Amino acid sequence: MSVVVENLSKSFGTLRALRDVDLRVERGTLAVLLGPSGCGKSTLLRVIAGFETPERGRLALDGEDVTSRPLGKRDVGFVFQNYALFPHMTVAQNVGFALSIRKRRQERSPSGSRSSSSSCSFPVTSGAARTSFRAVSANAWL
Fold first, then answer.
1. Is the pLDDT of residue 139 over 50?
2. Domain 1-76's class?
3. How many H helices and E strands in the chain?
4. Above pLDDT 90, what percent of the chain?
């Protein structure tokens, strides 16, 4: 999925969390948001996923403007930083679990019959496969 963010701004009262953010992530690439606490990483991911609505700017997923599209219609998953994770699983297992749920939903058509679906995979180094989410404490979207 490609992600394009243009001139995006989001405030919480008097706190400006994002100001005129531009970002482009091409389909098939891996992007990492790094920065100190409070710089807007999680807010940007929450806007992309649809948990937050920007005051200004544009968000496109695979070339389609989804800025006003509701959370449930964006086809974007969000892995929270510290909550709703399985601490006994590795990074690969936590992400793989979310992908397996998504695949099962896509395999069923509205009539209940099976249809073809594309699989999703990601490369994981041996070290990353053993690292737990608790240790890396990162946000991600799928």
1. no
2. alpha beta
3. 4, 6
4. 37
Q: What pLDDT band is residue 79 in, cutting at 50, 70 and 90?
A: low
Look at the block and give the residue holding tokens 């649809």. 50
Greater model confidence, 104 or 120: 104
Written as one letter, the residue type at 119 is: S
Q: What angle do CA 90, 92, 93 make, to 5 degrees?
A: 65
Nearest residue to 15 via CA among 48, 52, 58: 52
- Helix (H), strand (E) at residue 22: strand 15-25
d(CA 136, CA 36): 14
pTM above 0.90, yes or no: no
Task: Provide CATH 3.40.50.300 ranges for the chain.
Answer: 1-76
Mean pLDDT of the 93-106 span: 72
DSSP 38-76: TSSHHHHHHHHHTSS--SEEEEEETTEE-TTS-GGGS--
**Tokens 């948990």 appear where?**
51
Give pLDDT, residue 68: 92
d(CA 28, CA 50): 21
